[in-house]
Amino acid sequence: MAHAGLIDSDEHLYEPREMWSTHADPSGRDDALALVDDDRGYTWLTWRGRRLDLADVHLPGDTGSCGRHRQRLEAGERSEYGYDESLPADYWSPAARVDWLDGRGLDEAVCFPNFGLLWERKLSGSLPAVLTNMTAWNRWCATVVTDSGGRLHPVGHLTLRSGPWAEEQLAALAASGVRLAMVAPGPVDGKPLSHPDHERLWDAFVDHGVTPVFHVADQPRVFGDCWYTEDESFVPAVESVFLWVPPALALTDLILNGVFDRHPGLRVGVVELSSIWVPQFLLMLDGGVEFTSKLNGRPPSPLAMRPSEYFARHVRVSSFSYEGPARLTAKSGDIYMCCSDYPHSEGTATPLADYAAVGCEPESRPGLFSDNIAFLLGSQPRGLPA
User: Fold this and answer.
1) Prediction pTM value
2) Fewest Cβ atoms nearer than 10 Å: which of 42, 46, 275, 301?
3) Which of 326, 319, 318 is nearest to 358 (CA)?
């Protein structure tokens, strides 16, 4: 049965200033992130007094607003706005976000962190700090479920670097009604996601009914650092150009090394990492495996299906309206999800109108607007899309 509600697969909630310190274990509060103002009125995400990045207040549809804010900073000028006074309630308040959904004709929304996208790689040298701040966000997620009456689906934040901790977090997330968790589509301390050390964790994701999701973030890189020649930029251009490569590589690893074969209940989401690459990727995935299997005299590992069929059975991908999800669906099947990226500057405050402008209406595309997102949330059965 199709899911009745319209679900946005990609929104963000700004973390309240004291969220990390409030929800961190007392023993780890020295490692808690904080939002701190400087003497020129700029607000910074900080860790142990170190500035990690500027805390922008985004304006949907106006990417240049972030650039202008950073230009003023570099020019030595005062901030044009005060962070707290400029932050709309629906950016951080679950109740206010529900009201925003009502005004946009949406029923539910998947909500990723905001500042949680900025710090994982920067703090990677201190695993205790990483675990402390992920735990704090995960605990706050429980309040988001409650305060939104279940209409917001906050996404937990996990690393596979500590198996016992990740298992504890999965149990806690599931108990609080959280059904999604962001993980990095990259190597885990030099090991691929398919490494035997991670088998128990994939079982745990399935057993707890929590779906791992790949999302754009400052996470462990799949390219060497030498390629990031503008590494001081908020988002290096090379990272934007190749933002689809980490999920493509991670999914190739999971498929070809049999993780989906061994864990048929595992589902994976790909969000804000673009979707236009998927049709060509699926052709290359099947073609590359077929060619190398003949060339090498054996496949990478014995699989029961074609590689692209695992993608169709296990993976769902968010597709912005401007990417033409109807055209993509015709090429690679009904695996795409609507998304707004609200309230980020590269996102939109009018998602349904944007999709309607490219010929995508909820009545004719239940997969795009509800069923495929519900699949990741565990409320739709697994199966090959038509």
Assistant:
1) 0.95
2) 301
3) 326
